[in-house]
Each structure stands twice: as structure tokens, then as C-alpha cells.
Amino acid sequence: MAINMIGSAPIGAAAVRRDRSNGFLVSAVVLTLAVPVFAWTLWAAHSRSASSDAQAALNGSLSELLATVTTAQSSMRGYVLSGTDAFLSPYRQAVADFPANLDAVTQTLATARADGEQIEVAEDSAQQAMDFFQTVVTTRTETGFDAASGLVTGGVGRQFMADLRGTTQELKTASAAIIADNTRFERFLTWLQLGVFVPAIAAAAYLAMLASRRQRQLRAGADLLSDLMDAAPVGTAFFGSDRKLLRANAEFAQIVSANAATSPGRWLLPVIERVLANRQTHTDREFVFGDANERRAVVSAFPTRAATKGTGGVGVFVMETTELHRTASELDETSHRLTAIADNIPQLGWMAQPSGEIVWHNRRWFDYTGTTPEHMAAEGWSSIIEPAHAERVDEGYRSAIASGEPWEDTFPLRAVDGTFRWFLTQAVPIRDVDGAILRWFGTNTDVTKQRALEEEFLAAKEVAENANRAKSQFIANMSHELRTPLSAVIGYAEMLEEEVEDLGQTHLLPDLKKIEGNARHLLSLINDVLDLSKIEAERMDLYAETFDLATVLEEVGSTVGSLIAKKDNRLVIEHVGTLGEMHSDQVKIRQCLLNLLSNASKFTENGTITLSAHRSSDGSRDWISLAVTDSGIGMTPEQVERLFERFAQADETTTRKFGGTGLGLAITRAFCRLLGGDIGVASVEGEGTTFTIQIPAVAEEEGQDEPIAPTGGDATVPGPAGTVLAIDDDPHARDLVTRFLTKEGFAVRTASDGVAGLEMARAIVPDVILLDVTMPKKDGWSVLAELKADPRLSTVPVVMVSSLDEKRIGYALGASDYLVKPVDWDRLKDVMDRYREPPGALVLAIDDDEDTLGRYASMLQRLGFEFASATNGRLGLQRVAERRPALILLDLNMPVMDGFDFLKELRAQAEWADIPVVVLSSKDLTTDERHALSTAADQILSKSEVSLRQLAERMREAMTSLNGSAPGH
User: Fold this and answer.
1) Claim to verify: residue 188 and residue 307 sit in the same structural domain
2) CATH assignment of the domain containing 556
3) Model confidence band, residue 706 (pLDDT cutoffs 50, 70, 90)
4) Chain segment 516-564, per-residue pLDDT in tens
5) 492 φ/ψ angles, rounded to the nearest 5 degrees
6) What DSSP designation does 385 have?
7) What whole-number distance in Å separates Cα of residue 719 and Cα of residue 864?
8) Are residues 285 and 425 in the same domain?
9) What angle do CA 395, 401, 407 make, to 5 degrees?
10) Considering the domain boundaries, does residue 969 fall inside one?
11) Which residues span the domain enclosing 103?
12) 796 lies in the same domain as 945
């Protein structure tokens, strides 16, 4: 079958011939019936002609309407299948033409004798179809292929189109009946005009004119049809009843003749035959054609009205769908691949609507849970999640859906066997290019094993932490237990030294000093072990204070002077420029320098040891550089590498020859880093070694308030005066303090625990209180707090005497001074001198160590003080109640009532609130304990660092700070 592009004239040729025949018949009738009959016939012929014209116009407008809607349907289907904008152009044109088509139908209805209700049905069907097509296009654009395809395959659009085509066909059938009726009547008029001669001529002329007009109308309709066909986005053609092509547009020719080797009759002729046979429309039939390259097309065919007697022709719409089919196949293949991937990932997978409604689960979900899609659609996750977690999970999920943020949670899911396993559930929103959420994709990853391992790890971690705490507690307890007898040894050695001097038996002094020196050396080893345990447990605290660096260097030099001189070495202290002040932990800086200087003196003979310092700035902060240089034996590079390891020295021969534990340098480096700096070393074997410390001039403190240091005058109290209360659970400590302070002229009272100390303080209201920290019943911090809270005792100076170096907390709690056990009696004497009152001043010592209380009593009585003691805080309170002391010496660790509770009780009484309390304790304090003493103790002294003389001096300072001034001693 050849394809020819021909005009539209052949379509109306038969109609023109029929009109001419009718005109001749009408003319014969008119000639026979005369002029009125001819006039009437003219009128009747004109009326029936107008009716036929109206019917033709109505049919044309209906055809245009159907063509527009059909174009919209075809374009919509193409866009749904491909998603490309190429199909939207004809669709939008059809949408734009649709209102005009509806208006044309309405206008022609006014002149045509058509069923108005059917016209409304046709218009409604067309409008509903166009609205549906718009819904599909919008859905495809906003939601995607699946949703749009679901709408198309749902059949709603097809129903609208079927209704439109059915109603249109019914209207055309009715119109054809009207036209046929008009034709029959026109034939009757023709026969009537043949009987009227003259009118027949006029009738013939009129019919000729009418025919000419009809011809013009047909040509105009043909031109319009030609334009429509040429502009149509689909192939359009008309075939006659003889199966020959009458008219076709370029699109039809391009599709059908694209493969010249293939006759289009193979697939088009069967469709044409079926339409000609049953005169019914066949729509949306897909055909495959093409030999070399398979092509696809969708064909719609409909019957056309015959122009002359006989069977009408066939109209054909053809839309090629080759690319659409290929795109759909690719989409199907992609969908299958994604489904296969989702079903085989190790996680349970699911997808949800933007609203959060879960609409899909992968195969592994159903394998694990044993559920079905129907079950999940009806029950959701409520039967899968463990009930204890359901509400929390639901709240978290809905919150994520509402916010559009990714969701993550961990909870148990029930397996097919009824057991629960833990899953890490994650969901992320999938968004379009505009950021709108299209759907959610989620996974559930089985983390049961990981969770079990985590629980095992946490359990093991807890066991390890408990073991570490037990180790630290053991070391702390052992250190305290070792410090207590050492305090007694050192204290009695000092007492014996003084008594030997008083008796003139100076030949015993060297042996006594050896006892004291070795005891202090052993104490330093214990302190090193305790410091190491704190470092390992990361419990070593930084307590910054402001001090003059040059003064500290001189004091350190004075302290190690005799040690350096033992091997005929010379100490040189030098610094460039003004060193100024530092705000750092003075105690740790001293210990670092003492460790380095002690090390240098150990490995140097007949040489020079230099301690140098200088201050520099890097623009943002000042730095202090402290260097200790010796001219000793030096070290090899291998020895330097392991120098800062714990329990390690240069080598075994060094240990055998020079001794030592190997902890000093390790502790020094830890302190330097705690202070915000570090330490380095440079050494040449046989020439000497230089250790250099670099630390910031202002240390960074971690949110700790700097305790307020006690104030006190420099004047000392002369003569025996004042009552001292010593609170310490160590009887040896109490004995030593008593003996020493008695010698110094103080009246000493003691208490062996915090409770006794508080009671004694309230009873006697001493002039000074010496207070240990670590005591049973109530520790020194509690005692100090109570002392400062007691209106009667709050002004009594309190000197803390403890084996714990916790000066800051003691000062913060209100201690007047702080001495570290073993007590340095010179320092104790200096303290007590500050608190010395006229004869009769009472010093209360609260300590559970009888030896310590004995030493306090001896010292204070020798100094002219009255002395009272208590072995715990409660007894101390009783002593205070019996007689107000001028000062209280307080230990912290005591039975019955420790030093903390004693201070708390003491300070709670308004009449005791001003009694100075000196805390003397060997307890290692926590940060909370330090803060607890911030307003209670006047001074806090470490028993391991203060001598009895120093204790006496601190006592005097505490008393002086209370009394404003006192006579000299």
C-alpha cells in the first residue's frame, strides 16, 4: 500500500454529487406545483439544509473535541512512560485548545436538533478525562512513575474516554439520522418542484447557489482538518472503504514508512478490516513491526462517514512507542536490580511514605520476623518491637518524621522463633531536587553480638576500675599506716635531739639525726609511691597560688645545701633579669627542683651544681625555664632514652652504686606536664647532665576556686601563754606535740578524734587548735568546718597538722595554718609562737595518736602554754566545752569523730567560731574534702613536713591572726 499526501476534496465529492441530484428533483416538483409550492419548497429546502449544516457543524466540533482529548491522552501516556518533557508540549497544546472546543460544541448545539442531555454528558466526560490526565501528569512529576502508572492502569481514564467516545458516537448516530431525514424530505421537495416549471428554474438556481455554498464550506472544513492533522503530534490517516489511503499527515508517513523494506499492511490492514467490518472504534492496540530493528506503535482506529452511498472509511491514529517501551524496560530492569539488592543486603530493610507509613519490607525482614506483607500492613511494628521499648521507639520515629531529620535508635526485635535480638535501626529521607521528601529508607542491623561484647567490655572495665580503685585505696591506706609510726619516729627523734642538747650530751646528736634523716628518707619514698598511685589514677590535683619565684629558688637552695655539700659540691643559683611572680602549684615545683637537685648531688663529686632560671614570653603567655646542670658522670644516649621510665635508672650498676627507686624523675615529668609544661634532658657521658623544665608562669586551673590563705602577723608571742588543743588520733603524735609545746610554754590539751576534739574545744575554748585530718569518727575537715561554724570557736586559730599535704583545702576551710606530718618541731614552734598568749593560754591538740599528743604537750608546756588533748573530735569538743582554748591543733583521721566533723561542730557554735584551728594530718584529701575545709581551719599542716618547732610558729601565727598582736617570745 503506497502512502500519498493528498487533499481533502475526495472526502466530500460524494456528498456534492448527491446534493446536485436532489436539486434536479426539487426543481421538477416546483415546475409542476406552481410558484407558492415552489416558494414553500424553497423555504422547506432551506430549513432542512440549515438543519443539516448545524448537524455537520456539531459533528465537526465533537470530532475536534474528541481529537483534542485523544491527543491529551496520548501525550499523557507518553509522559508517564518516559518522564521526558517532549510529551508535555502537545499535552499542553491540547489543554490550551480544550476550552475553545467545548465552546464550539455549546455554540453548535443551539442550532442543531441534538439531545442536550447527551451533549452535557459528552462535555462532562471530556472535562473529567482532561482533569484526570492533569492529575496523572502532576503525579508523575511530583511523585514518580509508580504512582502515576498506578493511576493510569486503574482504568479511570479509560472509562472517561469510553464514555466520551460512546456519547460522541451516539450523538453522531443521531445526527446522521437527522441528516438522513433531511435528505429524504429534500428529495420530496425536488419531486414537488419538478411539477412547477417556473419555480423550478428559480429552485434550480437556488440549489445551485446552495451547492456552491456547500462546496465552500467543505473546502474550509477540509483546510481545517488538514491543519489539524499536520499539527497533530501523532500519525493521522484516513482510509476509504476500499482500503485505499485518502489522506495522511507527515508524522504518519514517517512512522509507517520508516522501514521501507516492511509493508505497513502487515499490521495496519487487520485493524482497518475490523473497523470496516463492525463499524466500531478500536483503541490503543500495540503493534510490533520492523525486521532489522524492532519497533513498537500504539494504534487507534475509528470508522468515518461515507461521502456517497455505501460504506464509510476508517480514520487511524498511530503513536510510536519504541523509545517509551525501551525506557520502561530499562526502568523495570533497574527496579528488579534494586529489589534484588534490597532483598540480599545483610540488614532488614524497609521503606515508608513521607508521612511515615511503612509500605515495603525486604525479604530478610520477613525471613527474620516470620511475618507476611499482609500482617505488617495490618499490625505494623507493634507485634515485633519488645513492649518495654515500643513507646520510646514510636516517639523517636514520629519525631524524626516530623522534623525530616535522619533517625537512629537501638532496640530489640522479635525473631520468628520468639526470641528478641538487638538491632541498630537507621532511617534517612530520600528527597527530590527541590528537597521535598519522596520516601524514607530504613535498615535494621543486628548488633546483638556487638552489644554483648560491649557489655562484657564494660563489665571488664568496671572490674579493672574496681581493682585500680582497690589498689589506690590500698596504697593510700598503707601510706597512711606507714606515715603514722614514721611521724612518731621523726617526732621522738626531734624531741630527743632537743633534750640531748638541753642535757649537754651532744655526742648523741649524730645518731639521733641519722634516725631522723633515715625516717624522713623513708617517708619521702612513701610519698613517692603515693604520688605515683595518684598519677596512675589521674587523681593528682593542681593547686595554684601566687608566689615569688626567686624566693622559692633561694628556699630550695637552702633546703638542699647540706645535701649538696656532702660530696664537696658547690651550689650556684643564677637567673637573668627579674623572675617575678608565678601562679602555679608551688609545692610541686619545689618537689621537681628538689628531685633534680638531689639527683645531681647524687651523681656529682667535687663539682658544681647550677640552678638557673629565666622568664620569657611567646606573645600569648609567659614561660618559666628552670634548669639544673651538674658536672657529674653524665649518661649515654641509651641511658637517656629510658631515663623517665618508672622504677628505672640508668643501669643496674647505677642502682647498686648510688641507690634510689627510679621514681623521682618519672614523678617530676608527670608534675611538669600537670603544670602545663614538660621536662627535657641533655647529657654527655663523663661531662655532666642538664635537666630543663619549661612551665607556664600562670597555670591553668580546672574550675577550682583558689582558697583564701590565712592572714597572720609576723610578731611572735613571747613567754608561756595560751591554751592549745591538739586533736589527733595518733597517741604518739599527741604525746610529741604536747611535750614540745609544753616545753615552749603552751598549755596543751589533746583529743584523739574529731568528736572528742570538738567537745573539748567547746568545753575549754582554747587559744589555738592543732587538728589532724585523718581521724576516726570524724576527720579533721569535718572538725574544722564545725569549729568555724561555731560562733564561740569560729575565731579560734586552727592549725591543721596532717600527713596529707592539703594546705589549700585547710586554708579554704578556715584553718590558720597547715603542718604536714611528721611534724617539723621547729615549724610547729614557729606556729605556736604566733598564737602564744600570756601565761595560762590553752592549746588543744586533737589527735588519735598518743605519741603525737605527747610530743605536742612537751613542746607546748616548754613554751609556756597550757596543753589539752583529745584522741578524737568528740573528746576535743568536750575539751573545748570545758575550757575555751586559745588554739586547737587538729588531726583529721580519728575514731569516734574525725577532724572534719570536729571542725563542723566547732564552727557551728558561735562562741567557738573564732578559735584558731591548725590542722595537722597525714590524710590524702579529695577535692570535696578540700572545699569542705575552705572556711573552717585556720591552717593546714602536713605531719610529714612540719617539725614541732615549725608547729609552734604556726600556732603563734594563728593566735596572732586572731588577736591582732601579741608580745614576742
Assistant:
1) no
2) 3.30.565.10
3) very low
4) 777 877 777 777 777 777 777 666 777 788 888 998 999 888 888 888 8
5) -65, -35
6) B
7) 6
8) no
9) 75
10) no
11) 9-227
12) yes
Residue linked to cell 602536713: 942
Q: Is the separation of the CB atoms in 694 and 812 below 8 Å?
A: no
CATH number for position 498: 1.10.287
Q: What is the 3-state secondary structure (H, E, C) of 236-300?
A: EEEECCCCCEEEECHHHHHHHCCCCCCCCHHHHHHHHHHHHHHCCCEEEEEEEECCCCCEEEEEE
Q: Are 722 and 817 in contact (CB under 8 A)?
A: no
Helical spans, DSSP H, in 603-651: 637-641
Neighbours of 7 (CB within 10 A): 12
- Can you name the residues that pair with 428 across neighbouring β-strands? 441
Q: Which of 15, 37, 16 is nearest to 188 (CA)?
A: 37
Instruction: Render pLDDT for 288-340 as a digit per residue (tens, 0 to 9).
Output: 766 556 777 778 888 887 655 556 788 888 877 777 777 777 777 766 776 77
Domain boundary, last residue among 188, 204, 227:
227
Q: Do 471 and 557 lie in a common domain?
A: no
Virtual CA dihedral for 660, 666, 672, 678, nearest 10 degrees? 120
Q: How large is the angle between the packed helices 664-674 and 509-536, nearest 10 degrees?
A: 50
Cell representation of residue 663? 621514681
| Neighbouring C-beta atoms of residue 968, cutoff 10 Å | 11
Phi then psi for 505, rounded to 5 degrees? Answer: -95, 65
Long-range pairs, 383-388, Cβ under 8 A, ≥24 = 383/414, 384/413, 384/414, 385/411, 385/412, 385/413, 385/414, 386/411, 386/412, 386/413, 386/414, 386/420
pLDDT of residue 578: 84
pLDDT > 90 fraction of the chain, expressed in percent and rounded? 12
707 in a structural domain: no
Residues 6+ away with beta carbon under 8 Å from 487: 730, 732, 733, 803, 821, 822, 823, 849, 851, 852, 922, 943, 944
- The answer to whether 244 and 2 are in contact (CB under 8 A) is no
Number of domains in the chain: 6
Answer for the pair 194, 29: CB distance below 8 angstroms, yes or no. Answer: yes
Distances (CA, A) of 785 to 110, 728, 809: 109, 16, 11
Is residue 333, in this structure, part of any structural domain at all? no
Number of helices followed by number of strands (H, E) in the chain: 29, 26
Alpha-carbon distance of 865 to 498, in angstroms, equals 18
Strand bridging mode 939-942 / 817-820: parallel
Phi/psi of residue 575, each to 5°? -155, 150
Give me the residue label for grid cell 646528736: 509
514 and 385 inside one domain:
no
* Amino acid at position 508, single letter: L
Asked if residue 858 and residue 796 are part of one domain, the reply reads yes
**CA dist., res. 955 & res. 890, Å (int):** 11
CA–CA gap between residue 844 and residue 750 (Å, rounded): 5
Q: Tell me whether residue 157 is exposed, middle or buried, using C-beta atoms within 10 angstroms of its C-beta: 0 to 12, 13 to 18, 19 or more.
A: buried
CA 413 to chain CA centroid, Å, is: 25
Q: Are residues 634 and 761 in the same domain?
A: no
Query: 3-state DSSP helix/strand/coil percent for the chain, to nearest 5?
Result: 55, 20, 25
Q: Are residues 78 and 194 in the same domain?
A: yes
Q: Please give the C-alpha separations between residue 895 and each of 724, 751, 827, 872, in angstroms, as whole numbers.
A: 20, 10, 27, 6
Instruction: Write out the E strands in 403-471.
Output: 407-414, 420-431, 437-446
Which CATH number characterizes residue 384's domain? 3.30.450.20
Is 570 a domain residue? yes
CB 858 within 8 A of CB 762: no
Q: Which of 326, 361, 395 is the last residue of a domain?
A: 326
Tell whether pTM > 0.85.
Answer: no
Neighbours of 482 (CB within 10 A): 18
**If you search the block for the grid coordinates 590553752, which residue do you land on?**
842
Question: What dihedral angle (degrees, nearest 10) is formed by the CA atoms of 753, 758, 759, 761?
Answer: 120
Q: Are 752 and 848 in contact (CB under 8 A)?
A: yes
What is the C-alpha to C-alpha distance for residues 767 and 789, in angstroms, rounded to an integer?
17
